[in-house]
Amino acid sequence: MFDSWFTEPVKKINFKMTKVLSFISRKGGSGKTTNAIHLATSLSDAGYKVLLVETDTNYTLISSRKLELFKRKEKEDKYFPILASEDHRVAAEIEEIKASNTVDIIIVDSAGKTTDAGIRELCLVSDMVIITTSLTQNDLLVTYQTVKDLLPAKELNPDLKLCILPNRIHSHTRMKTVKEVLKNLEAEVIDTYVPQKKIYTSPSTIEAEKRYASIANQILKVLK
Predict the structure, then answer these.
(1) 0.90 cut: is pTM over it?
(2) Which domains are seen in the chain, by residue range?
């Protein structure tokens, strides 16, 4: 099913203002970070000016970037920047960056233990929130709770697009089946999913995975 999508290039959209896309989940291991990286590298490869922000104070993304640069013997300014932030200050930093209008898209990989206040503030400065989930019962329960936690912020930010990105789905699963499982969630299900394949589990912060392009395009379709 997905093999025919792999050659599709990421489409370039000219955004008038900086767009903010935040990955949020109440549970670690849902695919939030891996998809944030895949999306950032895919959009950067397509010519977008991207800023990737992480609020987990372990700063895994920045450490991964430094390791990749060391192995390649390259300088960081060749690639899109990764900003280290924290739950309590990321919203204010995003507002400042948006005002400068120097990047096309800010992608936020929020911490797994983000506070309720942090979630609310991040949602208020975001154009789109993506919740990644598999179809396992445990992940679905966490996703349900995450959506429930985000709905009050959507009332304060009516333009916020609250979306579900199905992740780690068997590649022969029909999208109709995925949507049926997720239909009771009060959020838009992105019209694609991330297959359960090894190539999606260890993304590079430098090199785009070409087979993620079709997923990036579906996300952009909702974001624009």
Answers:
(1) yes
(2) 3-223 (3.40.50.300)
